[in-house]
Amino acid sequence: MKKVISTSKAPAAIGPYSQAVEVNGTLYVSGQIPIDPATGKLIEGGINEQVKQVLGNIEKILSEAGYTFKDVVKTTCLLSDIADFKAMNEVYASFYSENKPARATYAVKALPMGALIEIETIAVK
């Protein structure tokens, strides 16, 4: 059965989608950009700050659904500039020090609200 996951501790969706959906022990977290959930605005700062915010938002969504980063099996990272790949990796690695998930990373032309990074996540129990 499909269960929609929503928490006020992470940014509200900025379009017609859910923060996450759980089906049969698998959690699909929509792409998250570095929005401060308190203000609904993109945070200030460079790639390091933005990756930390995105992963912090994902952590809140995972927690709301009863998951942790250890349950994450796959992520997709979208960068507005591939030159940020190394810096993104350094921050990302601090959240996934063990049990690293599979991952794909793409450079894209632009992201919503001028974000530098977007990450979508799949977790399994």
| CATH fold descriptor | 60s Ribosomal Protein L30, Chain: A
Order of helices and strands: EEEEEHEHEE
- Specify the CATH architecture: 2-Layer Sandwich
Helix content: 10-25%
CATH superfamily: RutC-like
CA gyration radius, whole angstroms: 13 Å
Identify the CATH class.
Alpha Beta
Please list the strands of the largest sheet in the order they lie side by side. 1-2-3-8-6-7
Biggest β-sheet strands, sense, barrel = 6 strands, mixed
How far from one another are the termini? 15 Å
Mean pLDDT: 97
Low-confidence stretches: none
Number of strand elements: 8
Shape: globular
Task: Name a few traits of the molecule.
single chain, 125 residues, alpha+beta, 60s Ribosomal Protein L30, Chain: A, 6-stranded mixed β-sheet
Detail the topology: elements first, then pairings.
Blueprint lengths: L1 E4 L14 E4 L2 E7 L2 E2 L4 E2 L4 H18 L7 E8 L5 H11 L6 E6 L9 E8 L1
Parallel strand pairs: 6-7
Antiparallel strand pairs: 1-2, 2-3, 3-8, 4-5, 6-8
Describe this structure in a few short sentences:
The protein has 125 residues and is of the alpha+beta class. It contains two helices and eight strands; from the N terminus they run βββββαβαββ. Strands 1-2-3-8-6-7 form a six-stranded mixed β-sheet, covered by helices on one side.
